[in-house]
Amino acid sequence: MSCCCCSCVDTGSVGVIQKFGEYQGVQEPGCSCICWPITTVDPVSLAVRQQECRSDCKTKDNVTVTVVTACQYRVQKDMIKVAHFDIADPFSQIAAEVDSVLRSSMPTMTLDESYEAKEKMVNEILASVRDAMGKYGYDIINVLITDIRPERSVMDAMNEINASRRQREAAFERGEAEKLLKIKASEADAEAKRLAGVGMANMRAAMAQGFQDSMKFMKDSGMSEKEAMHMMIMTQYLDTLKEFAGSHGSIVVPHGPSAVGDLQGQIRDGFLQAASQQKMSGGIFG
């Protein structure tokens, strides 16, 4: 900023002093007296600035992408003369260097690989831009790849592929869960049947023991085996009728008292037939 014979330079900047267009030196921040228009002062900011670059590239799998890069840089104070006079458009120079690196790197990678190689590309860009701009008095502080953006149709296709992959994974997990549930249900059913069998065996053993104790008690009381058997059959018969009477919807066909005797005869004949078959089997194979 030049005004009459006073020149003011803001904090964070320096002034490039020229006399008749010839470089004279640097003015520090503050106010100075100059002989205007013979002497002029051009302010140059030393603050860190950021430039966004957009590069259109093609990947190894022929996908066109736009790579958005952010370059952070500033002017080196000790090279202020070179930075001010030797390069007319530093922004275009930085963008050209970024484009050059990306357009040589991206064709060697597929789209998926480019997302994973961001750090590698950042290091290549940083080294190239620092080397190119350092001789012009610009210090490249950092480079960031903020976005790798394919065409809209490619993005839609990628989203569909990812959605299909997620659906397959979800279907697989659901199938595994259903499989596990069926296995556990089968194991539970098998265990229930095993326990039911154990319970049935214990019940029959208890019934047999009860019959044996009842027979022994009745024989000890002076009853014959025939009378004891008849009484037990009669007791079981009455218990069965009692169970039928307690359940709704059961139909009992009436019969005479002789049916109990017929039942007793059938049971006795069954025992005799079983004993006879056992004896014959022992005679043949014994």
UniProtKB/TrEMBL annotation:
Domain Band, residue spans: 4-162
Entries under InterPro entries matching the protein: Band7/mec-2_domain, Band_7, Band_7/SPFH_dom_sf
Domain of life: Eukaryota
Pfam hit, one: Band_7
Protein name: Band 7 domain-containing protein
Species this protein is from: Cladocopium goreaui
